[in-house]
């Protein structure tokens, strides 16, 4: 598979992960919408119906009582009150019909409450009609008082049943609201969890692709060194189905051609010199290609971040981009250097730190360097570069909040025979005293610890006085 296809496949997988997170969020949003629709179209209309039923019954009772206290000699007022009773009855019947329909459809377990309200309502309607009839007949004061006593009793019972119904519906509303809020919290948690998992998977994919690219390049480099020493029995066995395999075939053919030309020493020497020259050109081309490929990855991350609104994901992509840029800068320095195995570490640190300052736009932070010009190999250079990148990034992000001014100082020097001392110090607000850099969940600090101890096989020391300082002592290679 061609290198471009490998990179494309990696980005497709990352895109699928992002799409999966979006799908989880979409499903969660649909579920939350369903929960709130149930509240909006089921519970709230029933509560509204109960309030309207209560108001209608109170209106019936009030206007009926007004009729009882109105003189038969005032026909206009009697007529108006009768019309108000009829209007309240119509409103009650319409509202109760809707309430009964909604309750039977969505909450059939509340039939008992509906039944009580219906019985009370029918009794109030009946008694209202009987009281008005008795009033119109005249000379029925005793019967009116008896009916009125029953009328008031049923009204109290009715209002109690209505309040019970409202209490039940409000409890249902609170329960559904709590369920909806819990669902939203679950959605947020799942999104964060899957986002973190996707980030880890994306890092693993990146490391896998990087390894698939760097491993054969290392083989080519080692084999070319063997050939440069005159070991023409070396055969490069690379089966990557890409341009690097084509390059290994070219190397093997070159070795074969050299072996067949050993009969003439002069020709052999000329061919060896030519092959060494070709080796340098090819290695420079390899470093140049690796640097270009890493810049492509960095550019794609930048383009991806422009389409993302989530600040957390933008920060993650920016951190990944800075890590890639620090490794790409190594390869740039290598193919620009006269020595393909070592770089000018002072120049490399200066360029990388300047890039980070520009990336975060920290004009309030000053950079100081005390770097001895010791040549350093690519393995140690990449490792030290990543460590410096992570620690400077942490300082720029967290050590100088709210525009606080400060200084970051980088020190690199020899402290013994092939023993080096690397220090990154800032005079910012410092890190929490209870933070254990070996147990923290911070990817950056975890990466620094792993690189210092497992790659450089060095000792890492954290000093928390007047800011934060990381010291690493390690053997050179």
Automatic annotation (TrEMBL):
GO terms for molecular function: protein histidine kinase activity. Gene3D superfamilies: 6.10.340.10, Histidine kinase-like ATPase, C-terminal domain (3.30.565.10). Keywords: Coiled coil, Kinase, Membrane, Phosphoprotein, Transferase, Transmembrane, Transmembrane helix. The chain crosses the membrane at residues 7-29, 187-209. It catalyses: ATP + protein L-histidine = ADP + protein N-phospho-L-histidine. Residues 285-477 form the Histidine kinase domain. Residues 156-186 form a coiled coil. It holds the Pfam family 4HB_MCP_1. GO terms for biological process: signal transduction. It is an enzyme of class 2 (transferase). This is histidine kinase.
């Amino acid at each position: 598979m061609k290198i471009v296809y490998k990179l494309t496949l990696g980005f497709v997988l990352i895109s699928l992960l992002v799409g999966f997170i979006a799908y989880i969020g979409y499903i969660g949003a649909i579920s939350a919408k369903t929960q709130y629709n149930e509240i909006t179209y089921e519970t709230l209309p029933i509560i509204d119906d109960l309030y309207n039923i209560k108001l209608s019954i109170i209106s019936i009772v009030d206007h009926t009582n007004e009729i009882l206290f109105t003189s038969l000699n005032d026909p206009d007022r009697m007529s108006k009150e009768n019309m108000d009773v009829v209007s309240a009855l119509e409103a009650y019947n319409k509202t109760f019909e809707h309430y009964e329909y909604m309750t039977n459809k969505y909450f059939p377990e509340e039939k008992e409450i509906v039944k009580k309200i219906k019985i009370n309502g029918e009794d109030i309607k009946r008694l209202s009609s009987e009281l008005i009839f008795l009033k119109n007949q005249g000379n029925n004061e005793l019967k009116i008082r008896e009916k009125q006593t029953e009328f008031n009793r049923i009204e109290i019972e009715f209002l109690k049943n209505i309040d019970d119904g409202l209490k039940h519906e409000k409890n249902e509303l609170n329960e559904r609201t709590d369920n909806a809020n819990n669902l939203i919290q679950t959605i947020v948690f799942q999104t964060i969890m899957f986002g973190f998992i996707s980030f880890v998977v994306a890092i693993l994919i990146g490391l896998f692709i990087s390894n698939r690219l760097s491993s054969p390049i290392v083989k080519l480099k080692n084999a070319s060194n063997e050939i440069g020493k005159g070991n023409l029995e070396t055969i490069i066995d690379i089966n990557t189905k890409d341009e690097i395999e084509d390059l290994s075939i070219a190397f093997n053919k070159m070795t074969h051609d050299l072996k067949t030309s050993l009969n003439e020493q002069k020709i052999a020497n000329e061919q060896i010199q030519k092959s060494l020259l070709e080796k340098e050109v090819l290695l420079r081309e390899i470093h140049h290609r690796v640097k270009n490929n890493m810049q492509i990855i960095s550019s794609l991350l930048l383009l991806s971040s422009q389409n993302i609104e989530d600040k957390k994901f933008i920060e993650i992509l920016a951190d990944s981009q800075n890590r890639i840029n620090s490794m790409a800068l190594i390869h740039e320095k290598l193919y620009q250097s006269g020595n393909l195995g070592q770089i000018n570490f002072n120049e490399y640190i200066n360029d990388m730190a300047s890039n980070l300052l520009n990336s975060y736009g920290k004009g309030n932070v000053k950079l100081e360097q005390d770097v001895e010009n010791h040549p350093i190999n690519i393995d140690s250079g990449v490792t030290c570069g990543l460590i410096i990148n992570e620690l400077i990034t942490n300082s720029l992000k967290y050590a100088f909040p709210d525009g606080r001014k400060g200084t970051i100082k980088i020190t690199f020097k020899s402290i013994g025979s092939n023993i080096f001392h690397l220090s990154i110090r800032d005079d910012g607000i410092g890190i929490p005293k209870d933070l254990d850099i070996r147990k923290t969940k911070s990817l950056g600090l975890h990466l620094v610890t792993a690189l210092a101890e497992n790659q450089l096989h060095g000792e890492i020391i954290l000093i928390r006085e007047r800011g934060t300082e990381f010291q690493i002592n390690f053997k050179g290679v």
